[in-house]
User: Fold these one by one.
Assistant:
Number 1:
Amino acid sequence: MSGGWDGAYEVVELRVHGVSGAAAETLLDHPVVTRVAGDDNAGFYRPRPGFGVSDRPQALRVEAYRWGALTAGGAVRTLSLLFLLPFMLVNLAVWTRPATGGAGGVIGPLCRVLAATLTAAFMLSVVGVTVDIVGWQCVPYQPCLRGRGYLSWLAHLPLGPRLALLALVPIGALRLLWWLGERSARVFEAFPAARGQDRTSGGEDRVDSPGFWNDALVVHRLRAIHVAVGLGVLDASLLAAPVHRHPTPVAYLLFGASWVLLAAGVVLLLRPARAAPDGQGRGPVDLRGIRPLRIGALTLTVLTLLYSAVPVEPEPPHGQLPGYEGAVAGLVAVQAVLLGALVAATLHQRRRSRAVGSSWLSGLATPIFAATSIAVSYGFAAALVYRIADLLDRGDIPNPARLDRSGAPPLEPPVSYRWAALAGLVTVLVVAATTLWRIQVSRRQRRRMAEEIVRRDFPDPPPEALPRRAAVREIVARSAIAEHLGPVLTVFLVLSVVGVTVVALDLIGIGPSELSRRLAGTDGEAATDLALATDVGIYVIGLVGLGIVVLGLFSYRSEETRRTVAAIWDLGTFWPRTVHPFAPPCYAERAVPELAKRVAALADQGGVILSGHSHGSVLAAATLLQLPSRVLPRVALLTHGSPLHRVYARLCPAFFGSPVLTELGERIGWRWVNLWRDTDSIGGPIFSAHRPGQRPRVTGPAGTVDRRLRDPRGITVPPDDTVPPPVNRHWPYHTDEAYEAAVRDLAGRLRAAAGTSPGPTA
């Protein structure tokens, strides 16, 4: 066969790796490689001629696209995962909506407004630490300053200048969010789309729309709005004190202007980011009102700081910062309303969707991700505010377990944060118990399914191979656990909706301890116990945050941990930032157009087999959907360990649902092979089954795509080996004999298509 390829139609196999990356040498199975295109962040590599041995014919070349550097390095990824996680989750929520064939209805605007409330919650938490706890409560109380030179100098400043100076910290924190979200975005995003992407139709925003992966102007628009919202929250918080204690016409004017600024931001978020389609794909970004909003926000903030810095000598501050606790409770109440509306809108679209049966969580992924973003946001905020309060509390400042001391500040964060801590503790315990319950309940069903698979693969094992067979059965059973965890997230959604709604009780002054007294008539000891329970919740939330950091650090030492973290991270940063501008940059906005350009250039010289492993198969599918129609006859697709159906078609049905995947197969003439294993916990079949262990159900061309690989190849020790064949699970696939057979099969189909359709030859 090799001789028949010499001097024939050249075919390039372009390999795209999955999450957590891989060295180009590993991808190409070659000791020496050279970069032929791209850069250090994302590049195309080929084996260097004259080094190594290959039994492939010259007309069947191999190339690799290495994009792993686009998802950041260890320290940056860990920090981003911790601080930008709520923003990433709410941005992901809009991409998981049910498929209806429409434009998404009100889900998009609701998610954008909800995202703005997360920015407001972030600013309120930083304001609570700096302006309220430090500047308003701690500094005027001398025992709080004893031995703290880094704070005692603030006591020499009048109240107004002190609060204005401390207000610079929230502004710096907002700028830090900007920097983290913008970090290297110029390298990762805003790559121009290739010309000729004319396969688009009306209706729902489609992955094949020209310019789908170029949303730099949308991010620019959202960034201006969110900065204005953050500054508006800061301005209103600073002005609440003078309006409450020493009102003047100027204070009322500035305070009203801050609310006008916030209202303007909400109005702009409710409007579509893009204008009507212009016939070439999605319409241009609507930037009207952004420049006046930016100028107004900066001007108002400067005026607010100047007004707050005017030295006025009122009576010493007491209690909490005026209006701060009500602002936190009111914001949570707004989020509860938005979350309820999002659940209702998703259920309404779910009834219109035809893919509910095959979608993950029955189409409720959008409100689940939104609720998760709120929970994580308030978990981090409560942990931050309470940890600072505990740091400043030397034991002689009152708390719910101690009597008030004359002249001492409460040094107590808003009651809403106590609710968040208590709700977080209950949610963690209930979700953990539900997870263990689902694992235990589904174990028998998963083992039964796994037993059928191993019995079919290894029908008559010798007695010495029975332990190996049992181990393989357990691996297969564990790989199917994700399909049984849907109820866990449903329970989490219910608890989140209830928890966020109950926080609204703080608007009428009812906190956990007070509610306990009113409802159960408990005494002070029970109230103290409840306060201690909320303290435990704060520590649990802090441990969860610390666990995320530790997980991020260990992910670079353990391959299995790295793969798990990278899978979550790469899923969250795969989609454009059309909801929250401070989410981590979207690496696909570079990878997909770059891949499309490279494939089109290679197709001008011959055939291309786009081979995607794991998440690389998603990039490959998105790339093919962006290719012009003239290129498609010279392209084939090879996917292996692919989550296209198991994760993306079910989690993001509006963008990678079964109809889209079927259309993709039709565009490339069904020159598509998908390799999968029952031991793979991430990849799976695309058309032939809906869950591991099911028999194929699809007929026609789609039924020929999926090819199951037996894993391991055997459970006995081969005559020429000393150990049984390994269980490969998710990696590698490209070293399997079936992979090479699939490459040659697809190359043959491309040669056959080239013989009947015009195209260059090597």
Number 2:
Amino acid sequence: MAERIAIEHLLSRGRPSDFPVAFREGQVLAFADFEARAAGWRAAYERHEGHRFALSFEDTFEFAAALLGAWHAGRCVYLPSEIQPTTREKLRGEVDGFAGQIPSSTPLLKFQEGARAEWTPLSPEAQALVVYTSGSSGEPAAIPKHLGQLTREVATLADLFDDRLGPSRVLATVSHQHIYGLLFRVLWPLTSGRPFLARSLPYPEDIVAELSHGPAALIASPAHLKRLPDTLDWAGVRGNLRSVFSSGGPLSTDALHACRGLLGQAPVEVYGSSETGGIAWRQRTQDEALSWRTMPGVEVRLTEDALAVRSPHLPDGNWFQTEDRARLLPEGFELLGRMDRLLKLEEKRVSLSAMERALLESDLVREARVVPLSEGNRSVLGVVAVLGPTGRHLHADSGKPFLNRALRKHLSSQFEPSVLPRRFRYLEAMPVNSQGKSTEAALVALFDSRRPPLRVLEHTADRAVLSIETPASLPYFKGHFPEKAILPGVAQIEWALHLGRELFTLPPEFLRMEAVKFQQLIVPETLLTLELTWTQAKGSLQFKFTSEAGTHGSGRILLGEVRG
């Protein structure tokens, strides 16, 4: 194995000029190449006034050289995880310059060809890095890092895992623009003398192809590991896979089983955050509920059921309070979920509160709630909104798909495309329970596949008229009947009751039905009109389904208070 060299001494001590640092399109990029690129970037920073610079590169080798060049120029690197317009605008007020692949409207530092540099050791006390994450308020928070924090964490990774990797290359599906990718894909390989691939591997086919070239470690995320197709020749290459790492979110049981079966091993899962650095790890080779083991030097305790951490990866010796609920165990701890409204979606942390505020900043929405939804084997976001006048007019004139696109476009200046909401529900009023609260369960229920596409045409305190579509994809049509699909009467009653609860404040207790009649069959693709009338004095919700063919169903649902 190669000599381990701390990042502070990597360029001042150096490695042999032909020592492989990275691979790009079959080409070996040696230490001499890395030193030359770092020198050119150092010269670029030194020619530019200012101390703070934002970096955004696609190529990991070039990013690593620009990073080391900045540190040796005495600069602090700001590391945005994305470069959406709103992010760039905010960064302009925080940094003195930009480098890398950033839209041309932003002035960029220019690499200085032919530059040479004398290297001296870096100071571990240097303010080296600022990464971004969402705070509990939902606003992006800047997390500063001293170089010593990074080098201590990299040393911890090397102590824990170097032996299992041996002389292997490093492959990654994750971006080096995030702290996980920066540590595992860039700094740890550089200090341990392990060459890395300069490009990311977004597709499983890429992973298989790269593993065929020899021993490698894979730095991945749950989003990638849960989508490994069993149609690829994993058996032919998994002998070259030295280890798999996963971080950035919880690894599902399905993804764990897929890794065991296809890759021949369970991933090493790493738990931590941008603020804390690495906290703990585990490898669930057999036990699916294995507790988390703290990393060397890390202490944990509970404060009101939430995990608190003291660590050499933090800037000081104080305790850091996380928002993760946990239970301490003799061999470590168990995580029990988040305490705030931050969500990891595709390994990107998104604040549901911030997204709701952004929706309200448009002139389309008067109220908005954002909720996580399950869609197959992944999570997506859904929006429940009460429209303002402009939104109602747009919905009426152009339809729901056009309004959905308008809201996604509004959010795209503040959020990455992968976290934008995929499903929308527009209501006249938010559903509330008897305490006047809109529960997440009630909001999620609005996205039930059994709920039909609809538009509210009229709505008063005691009457509503809705237009309801009945696409053939509705699950109610399956099996009713084999000879001819029809909408069962129970579905009409369920729609009437559920939509009545959305539009009126109804008593919680279902008592009975009266005068229920089903006059005509409802077949797929029938455009229905539903008229609902609420008589509070009688506790009666009257419903009537009609179409161009006439009346299909009608009746009364009687409701009352819960009886003790």
Number 3:
Amino acid sequence: MRKNKKKKTHIPLRINLLFFAVFILFAVLIFRLGYVQIVHGEDAKRELDRTEDVTVKTSVPRGLIYDRDHRPVVENQAERAITYTAPKKFNQEETLETAKKLAKLIEKETDKITDRDKIDFWILLHPDEAKAKLSDKEWADLKNEEAAKLQRERVTEADLKMLSKDDLEVLAIYREFTKGYALDPQIVKNEDVSLEEFARVSENLNSLPGVDTTMDWERIYPFEDTLRTILGNVNSGLPAEKLDYYEAHGYSRSDRVGKSYLELQYEDVLQGQKEKVKNVTKSGQILETELVSEGARGKDLVLTIDMELQQKVDQIIEEELRKTKAKYGTQLLDRAFVTLMDPNTGEILALSGKQYTYDEDEKKYVLRDFASGNFTTAYVPGSAVKGATVLTGFMTGVNHPGKWILDEPLIFKDGTKKSSWFNGGCCNQSMDEKTALMKSSNVYMFKTAMLIGGYQYQRGDYLGIDKVKAFEKMRYYFSQFGLGTMTGIDLPGEMSGYKGDPKTNEAGKALDFAIGQFDTFTNLQLAQYVSTIANGGNRMQPHIVKEIREPGNEDEKLGPIAQEVQSKVLNRIDATENEIKSVQEGFWRVVHSSGGTGTALGQGEYKNLRIAAKTGTAETFDQGKSVWNLSLVAYAPYENPEIAMSIIVPSAYLNGSTENKINSDIGKRVMKAYFDLQKERAK
């Protein structure tokens, strides 16, 4: 009985203790709530009501590009666009739901989706099946990154086939949603947005958080494919390899950016000043948008290029390539290049190149623009560089104007024989530099190279030339003309050419160098070289941009000049005026003397153009076959040059097959086209 009584008295005590503990906890909670409400109530209220101001930058149209006569070459065309601005706080489920809704309103291409995108999206749509890809032990033992990687690796092709066409379209949209940063508008679709799509999305914006409809732009080309490889292209979105660089300079991930050539080289000019917009947010959601500062489209470029002349040169190259291939059946002839340059300013007037390429769609070979090949590809040019060899002889002091040198077959003790193309051994001739250029004497150039290398030719002797000395000196002086070095053109991707590496026992390669059959040069280098001779010794820096202009307004197409590109002399060659004039006269005789190699440029309707020139042929190899490259450098009028021209036609014909003169055929027509155009405009 006593034991039972003790138990009964003990139970209420425990209950009382429990009630007391609960009372204390409630008291603390009430005290804390009262403290927060009374002491920090205003702070809490302000935190709930707090909004944030976040400034973002929105893209503006790029600057336009005009030719030298202010004809539009690259313009912007407005187009409808659908954008998405991610909230500050990312919610995967809400974002996916918005993507699903938008997919029902628009058609979205899925060609940019990667396998990794598909795997991640399958995992997102099938969380249970995705989790089952790993055992419980693997989930417990592996780090999050390792587990996620293993999970992706175990997603099979059969799993991915579960993604329907509609799923992939949602994925394509979801992918665009998640590409950028919070509050940074991303382009979801801006190509071929139909009026119906635009209207449907506009009507449903209230149910599509972050989605908006706006006007975007795209590049259009009034001259179509003319000069397209030089104008360059624009990326839609920042390139992955330069992402950090562009983001550090204020770019958004969806911004267009110059991808190649002019668009890339002048990106800072063409990009423009972005519009600044302040997004007022609350709890990560955008409440309103305020304009901070208006943007301005990019500045405009005015090129040195004459697009009318450019089109004429393109047409001439195409016609001559087709005609020559049809007439002579030249197997490897597939391209030709022409550079036209003002020798006094360095302005590029036309930069033309055409190449046969196979069109997979049309299933045939077509001629495509390859203007960039004028400075991105290099070839052995042959005798066209002999003017530089003659002047190198003068500048090194081994020769002088008027010095007579015997053109004779050269015979060396090891059995090697070298001669000029016109002199196989029957008619030795003494000639000065003018005649040597006119007749394109190889021996004159060989003997000049020997003297530069410290050797005086003796019949039947070993070739005792100092190869290192000869190459160093000749390459140094050739570089004064721009041969074998960067020309300095305001375009990316220029190459300097290939410098041959003769073996110890190949001293004769220095002789080949002297006639343009060892090192390779670009066609632009040849234009700079002949311009240096034409203008009396100044190596001008070639440039393709003439002016940078502020954007025009509605009343005026062009704005005021922001920057004018000045002509720049890179160097002056170490030759005297008399020495340069001697080579100029040699170039004149090439065209206007009966024994010249370029008389086709000075006959009939071309006679009054008063062209001075130097032709070139070079034996080389292409696809394992011996071929001949053809070249031509020229300027006109002789007395007061206003146009300099260089031409290279690689693999013009096979060795042993019928020769052609496509270099001269192109050259005379291009020169006439230039002067005919000048006459028309003068009227």
